[in-house]
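Human: You know discrete backbone vocabularies at least as well as I do. Show me how you would write down a chain together with its backbone fold. No explanation is needed for now; the record alone will do.

Assistant:
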Amino acid sequence: MPIAKEVLEAQARTNDLEFFKERVKTMPLLIEWANDEIRNNKEVLLTAVKIDGGALEFASDNLKNDKDVLLEAVSQAAWTGCYASERLRDDKDVILTGAKTDGQILYYASERLRDDEDIVKTAVENKPIILKYASYRLRGNKEIAKIAVSKAGKAVLSYLTPELQKDEEILDLIG
């Protein structure tokens, strides 16, 4: 069935749980047109976010605060950490899971986790420029700085602490 017809059918069947249980298996973003009760159904949302983490956008606030749902979403698409509740933006498992695929999730992490060496190191390995969202303390961590500079060169130099910006070993990595 063409996408437009699927959307029209979803809009007409907003209360049909069985319809959405089946349809999100192949078109997870159809969840947008489900009623609030269906968008709060953990089984339906888990199915959707396993295929397309972006379906998390349409989840209920309750499910945006559900660790199982978030872990599935960020492992599929780390940027979906933007939809996480404040509590889960401060959950090391959730943020680290996302950082393993895309360091961008550091942007959405709590201040506390922006100062977590494991998370920042993992995030910088995948997206060196995300260093700018790390805590000042970790922007002064030589090991993390080496990772960022070896991958992104001068592009990350300004995010390092002044001491590391002048460090010979760091500057040698830039060339």
